[in-house]
């Protein structure tokens, strides 16, 4: 089994109210990535991606574009030790 990796991502710009979370979930499920995504009070979106290195890096790259209506200004990524995320969810 490939070694799992974990990316903790913060996305800023026009990323709330544009289906960013739903598109993130759908894309993560297509790529076989576990984790979660949620809106923050400061207008950013926070997400955690866990899976194979290639799939997680693919999700991080996807965040720079995001949903079609999004206007992403910045993506901050911190790589962490995997914590065993299972499935992908939108958190509230």
UniProtKB/TrEMBL annotation:
Swiss-Prot/TrEMBL catalytic activity: an acyl phosphate + H2O = a carboxylate + phosphate + H(+)
Enzyme Commission number(s) of this protein: 3.6.1.7
Gene3D superfamilies with a match to the protein in the record: 3.30.70.100
Keyword Hydrolase part of the UniProt annotation: yes
Active site (record annotation): 21, 39
InterPro entries registered for this protein in UniProt: Acylphosphatase, Acylphosphatase-like_dom, Acylphosphatase-like_dom_sf, Acylphosphatase_CS
One function term, GO molecular function aspect: acylphosphatase activity
Keyword Nucleotide-binding carried by entry: no
Pfam families named among the record's database cross-references: Acylphosphatase (PF00708)
Top-level taxon in the UniProt lineage: Archaea
Enzyme type, top EC level: hydrolase
Keyword annotations from UniProtKB, A to Z: Hydrolase
Ranges of residues in domain Acylphosphatase-like: 6-92
PANTHER family documented for this protein: ACYLPHOSPHATASE
NCBIfam families found in the cross-reference section: PRK14444.1 (NF011016)
Family assignment from sequence similarity: Belongs to the acylphosphatase family.
The name this protein goes by in its record: acylphosphatase
Organism for this UniProt entry: Natrinema altunense (strain JCM 12890 / CGMCC 1.3731 / AJ2)
